[in-house]
Amino acid sequence: MTENQITRSTRFSFPQWLRRQAEISRSFSYSQPAPARTPWDSAGKKALYPLAIGLVIYSVAVLGVNGSITDDFSTVYNALRRFLDGVPVYNETYYFVDPHYLYNPGATVLLSPIALGTHFAFQRLVFIIANAAAIIAALALLTRLFGYSIKSAVFPLVVALAFLTEAVRNTLIFSNINGILLLAFVAFLRLTLDNRRWWAGIIIGLAIVVKPVFLPVLFIPLVLLHWRTLCAALGIPIVANIVGWILVPGASEYLSRTAPYLKEVRDYANSSLRGMAVYFGAPTWVSAFFFVLFAGLVIAGLLFLLQWRSKEPLLWIISTASLLLLAGFFLSALGQMYYSMTLFPLLFTVLLSRSPMHTWTAWIGALLVLAPFDWTSSYWPVVGPWITTFQATFGWGLLIIAISVSAMAWRQADLNNDAALKPSTA
């Protein structure tokens, strides 16, 4: 072969690349293993079900019902009542540190059934129970997705562990919608693996209407060329907001008042990298340096993970989705620790033969973003609250490092194996 022929054969061809991506998309599939049991199911369930049930009841009936000063449900309920009563919705004073109503007009219409009744305490309790049930349902889906029966001891174990986390506890205490969003996210992963593309797009589209933090996960259907998923996932928020713009009183104030506030990096209750920089008054160049560093690490991780699309689709979709969400939590204007509930699927990958969760770095990160630690102490009255607020920042950063570096290490290991298998030319 001549030098020109070698150059032509190795030159990048976009049509060939696109055909290759289409082949990968057509071959993308995941066969869920038959539900497995464990040798310790009988004894394990006797110990774990009372523990799981007790933690669920305590989390709902005591922690959730008692609530706290931070009350997301009241904020949402009052805003939705204003919508139903024909009163302008976006009329809050954003200089206060109270919880604010930040949902877009489309989400306002979608969530409006929450405020249809006038029995506030009862509706709040129903909402808390619905979120707890959604969390349990999401864990059941994940248990099956990873090959275990919900009749095995694995299911009560993961329920018990989940209801010990800060994310689940504060979701119920603050009475917000994150439990339902976790179920939607897990359903999207499952539907994508099953190639049920319209339904995957509808589910994630509804989640995006409520929480645009899920928008980056559309990278997954994009690289799979799942156009139906993308159309549904993008179309639903657009249509919902058009309807909301027509129906919600004072909808234009969302753009003039709320959107500018959302772009600000607040210096309280904000665990994002930029929030940490603002809180400590770090120089702009320091914040920019770490932003670019971690953004580059995320991009590298996403690219190195691509090789596992067809080889290990379950590992790929969950690692990729988790990395995208972590980038949003860590690099955006606002990151709050209870967002980490959406990382539950990542923890399940420890059951696979290959996983970022096979590293100590990942588990330190998971501990920091999920443990309900409060470091406040009379012995360190200043440092303690700092650690409590920003432990999630360090945890998200460690998880980004763990996923991206693991993907790079897997690629290097494959290259080394390929080199070892090549016959010697000596």
Automatic annotation (TrEMBL):
GO molecular function: hexosyltransferase activity
Location of the protein in the cell: Cell membrane
Short name of any one Pfam family annotated for the protein: GT87
Protein origin, superkingdom: Bacteria
Keywords linked to the UniProt accession: Cell membrane, Membrane, Transferase, Transmembrane, Transmembrane helix
Location (main, coarse): membrane
InterPro entries documented for this protein: GT87
Membrane-crossing segments per the record: 47-69, 125-142, 172-192, 198-223, 230-248, 285-306, 313-331, 386-410
GO cellular component annotations of the record: plasma membrane
Membrane topology field: Multi-pass membrane protein
Family in the record: Belongs to the glycosyltransferase 87 family.
Record protein name field: Glycosyltransferase family 87 protein
Organism (species): Corynebacterium silvaticum
